Amino acid sequence: MATGLLSLLALPSLASAYSWKFVEAPKQCSNLSITISGNDGKPPYRVLIVPFGSTPLPNNVEARKILEVPFNGSDSNTVSFKLNYPANSQLVAVVSDSSGFASGGTSVAAQVTTSSDSSCFDASKSVDRAPFVFSVEPPNQLVQCQSTRLWWDKTLVQGNPTFLGVIPGGESFVVPEGSITDVQAQGTGFSWTPAIRGGTTVLVVGGDNRGNGTGGSFLATVSNGPDNIGTCLNSNSPSSTPGTPAGGAYQTGVDGSGTGGGSNGGGGTNVGAIVGGVIGGVVALIAIGLLCLFFWRRKRVHRERKERPMDLEDDDDDDERGAADGRTHHLPDGYQPEPFTVPDPTIASTYLDDGLTSEGRPLSGYSGTERSGTPDLIHGGAPTATSSASGRKGPLRQMRPVNIIQHDDAGPSEAPPPADDVETVELPPAYTNIRR
Ligand SMILES: *[C@@H]1O[C@H](CO)[C@@H](O)[C@H](O)[C@H]1NC(C)=O
Ligand SMILES: *[C@@H]1O[C@H](CO)[C@@H](O)[C@H](O)[C@H]1NC(C)=O
Fold first, then answer.
1. Global pTM?
2. What pLDDT, in 10s, does the model give residues 136-160?
3. Closest Cα to atom 14, ligand 2: which residue?
């Protein structure tokens, strides 16, 4: 549904400078008349009638020929010619004026209705083959935006062949011809990259100096290809379109390739549907955009949250904090061994004097730093050691002797067994050691 809306948005304007219609539904062996309405066309007009679908005749007898008929009667806006097609076959009509091929639009596949007259074709024998044939390589397929070679036998062609792309109910076009080359086993031909949306039904009609259609036609449904390459497409790229086809109202094909059409002048009947589709499409686009924005932002926030704790060594942060603390080390705070809290600045300074480096950590190694005492924060009372307490003002609280051993590698402590009431604290190697 969404893609339907989007493709509707991408539709080029189908407005032709003029419109045309079948005066009556195409009828077996009867005159087929086409009239032009509107004054914006540039005569002379002509119509290309291309057989569509399989033949209804038994034994695969094909009685239909491609017709290109000029409007050259007294009324330049009308043409009438005998349609030598059997009933229940289908055709596609393309009307052009002097401004270019298919300027009047292309009909959907129209069904030929029955009549009592069947004298115009031989149901037992196919019509003569086209004067020349062409092939496509890779064979029997057209792939969106993928190079295809159209080639032919140059001994059968008069002049340079031209190829027309006829899209039932869509915008037909002249196949752009690249440089023509001769290739072993692939005759004479050129490369063509069909800028046609996958899924589009297209008839490639070959012609030469003798007329359009003298090379026969090749029917293909353009495939998206395995990679669905869309680089050659734009909003004007031809596709089968669900809009009002050219050619007016008539019975359409039984195989579903035709969708029927209102009268060609009745484009207004679809205005409601088109406006609804456009509004729906815009709303859908906005919704998709908001959704994308939401997910993008959520992902970003998520990532930031996730990454934060992983940031073990954010040098900027660390330097800032270290400077603020007046310390010179480069380890983040979280990794600083801080086994003891020294509440009294005098004790801390003594502690440093006694055996800590100026960096505030004990000297590493098994040498250990023996302290005579640490203030006991919980139990007040007289200290048991006094060396570190010199210069203190006021009475000392009770001190506990503690052995600090800092390892610089793994292994058991080789320090002497601690004395009875001496507490031993073994510290893991400093991170600065591990780094080295
Ligand atoms: C069909 O058209 C031809 C001219 O193209 C005309 O001579 C003939 O009378 C027409 N037949 C009918 C039944 O209108
Ligand atoms: C075939 O159709 C093309 C496109 O409308 C036109 O330019 C060309 O003159 C036609 N060829 C002949 C031989 O009528």
1. 0.57
2. 989 989 999 999 999 999 899 999 8
3. 211
